[in-house]
Amino acid sequence: MKEILTKLLVHIGLLTTILASSQLMAQESNRLSASETEWLTQHNGAIRLAPDPKFAPFEYFDDQGAYAGMGAEYIRLIEDKTGLQFSIVKMADWESIVEAAKQQEVDVFGVAAITEQRQQYMAFTTPYLTTRGVIITRVGVTREMSLDDLKGMKLTLVKDYVWDDFISLDYPDMQIDYVSDPLVGMRKVSFGVSDAMVLSMATASYYIEEEGFTNLKVAGETDYAVQFSIAVRKDWPELVSIINKGIEQISEQEREAISKRWLFHQYKAAYWSKELIYGILLVLAGVLGVLVIMFIFNKRLNAVVKEKTKALKEEQNQLLELNEKLVAARDKATESERLTKAFLTNISHEVRTPMNSIIGFAQLIEMDQVSKADTLHYASLMIKGGKQLLSILDSIIQLSKMESGVVKPVNEPFDVLNLLRETHELMLPLAKKAGLSFQLQLNTPSQHQRINSDRVLLQQVLNNLISNAIKYTPEGKVQLIGECSGQTLKIVVKDTGIGVDEADKEAIFKPFRQEKHRLYIESGAGLGLATVKKIVEVMNGRVWLEANQPKGTIFYVELPVVRVGEESH
Question: Where are the transmembrane segments (predicted)?
Fold first, then answer.
């Protein structure tokens, strides 16, 4: 018994030694040689692998653009076991990939069968996948088919697939319809454009299930069973050797796991009974009826919504317009109230001052206790006060006419340069009396310039601007500058007076805005510049002012005019 146990232990040890030795020999045989290691160092990461984009389940690109399929999983295992790194190249179809490989623009096919044509430009590794070619037809074909039965029919093949290489050689008279990928071909068969198609069982099963080709079936098998290898450009034998060592290291368990994930059972076509067809048609009719009702209802609803939206928009626009009118009316009422208060405040003061002086001097004369000389002096002051009252009333009436639109320009031909000269002569004594220099400057080469405009209104603008300039200039000079060029009359009144603050440049053209100047004038209602602005606006012109340097004010007036002889007819 002891001897038997001893012998058994010796045999077990010997067997263990043999197994260990075989594993070591296998590991040693799969180890890369020095030349292979050197080749891998030079080329790794730059090896271009171009997968067939629509050769599922063997290889394809998924919805995210990633390389997928059985071949993709084998490639990743080979990379892990050898250290290889492939660069995945995306191309349109298998035919383009084959042409690129012939030109050595592609280095590796991930899944390819060995054919005589391909061996001219590619070398092949040990096969790692096996498949059989099957014939795909519509479900109406009731008998089992072979390639011989397809003579006289239209057979669809993917250009440059292995089935093309086989059938084009063995059946030269076959009517072949070439397509770029399996999915296009299966659709042709499904739609009746083609009679049949030859594909691998795995590819046919995959697309029938994934794409839902319920009217297609596997009608028979071909005599072609092929093994898929990895194809490598012929001038890289080192890469073939490296990949073979990687394939040898893939275990049976890893192979079975890949097959279970990707290979499907043979597809059985659905049974199209009359009851099934009638049921589908009934459901489709019901769905169509619901869609029609929804379409009609939706169209009517849209029409109602559109009509209501239009009505609401019109009401909204009316409300906005009414609101704008109310805001404008409120602003106008507010401004009117302000002007009324300002008018009453100023007029009560401006009228009261000369009126009190007239009454006071009249009472002194009435007392008969003054000399004749004083009586004449008081009478002179009373006349001056009366003229002042008359001037205020004239200004109020003139501004009121302007505001109400009563005053309209009356265009008539006149010499505008002569008007400027006459105005200068008229105002010159007033300037001299104030101790000021009053200059006239006409920026035009001609001595006369006849235009069509309102001479009276223009004269009033000139009088107001020049008299204001003289009033508010304690010392220095006043200038009147005129220029008539093209269709525009430009007038400038410049002084060296007290000037106008920047903040008052706009407000000074509003009625009753002369409080700042009371230190420099005896009296005034503050209506002169407001009247100027209204006259200029009535004549379609504009007026503005700027500060003079180093002191004083410059008033600008621009008016559109028509020269005599240039009117429209």
Answer: 276-297
The alpha carbon torsion through 190, 195, 201, 204 (nearest 10 deg) reads -20
pLDDT in tens, 86-121: 999 999 999 999 999 999 999 999 999 998 889 999
Are 150 and 174 in contact by the 8 Å Cβ rule? The answer is: yes
Q: How far apart are CA 116 and CA 120, in angstroms?
A: 7
Tokens of 128: 């790692």
409-458 per-position pLDDT tens digit: 788 999 999 999 998 998 888 899 999 999 999 998 888 888 888 888 88
CB atoms within 10 A of CB 168: 14
Do 195 and 106 touch, CB atoms closer than 8 A?
no
pTM of the model: 0.41
> Omega before 172 cis (within 30°)?
no
Whole-angstrom Cα distance, residue 244 to residue 207? 30
* DSSP conformation letters of 166-231: HHHHH-TT-EEEEESSHHHHHHHHHHTSSSEEEEEHHHHHHHHHHHT-TTEEEEEEEEEEEEEEEE
Q: Which residues contact 554 (CB under 8 A, 6 or more apart)?
A: 492, 493, 494, 495, 545, 546, 547, 548
Q: How far apart are CA 482 and CA 364, in angstroms?
A: 49
Contacts of 201 (CB under 8 A, 6+ apart): 131, 132, 133, 134, 218, 266
Contacts of 359 (CB under 8 A, 6+ apart): none
Q: How far apart are CA 557 and CA 250, in angstroms?
A: 99
Distance CA 214, CA 343 (A): 96
**Cis peptide, bond prior to residue 550, ω within 30 of zero:** yes
> Does 25 have pLDDT greater than 80?
no
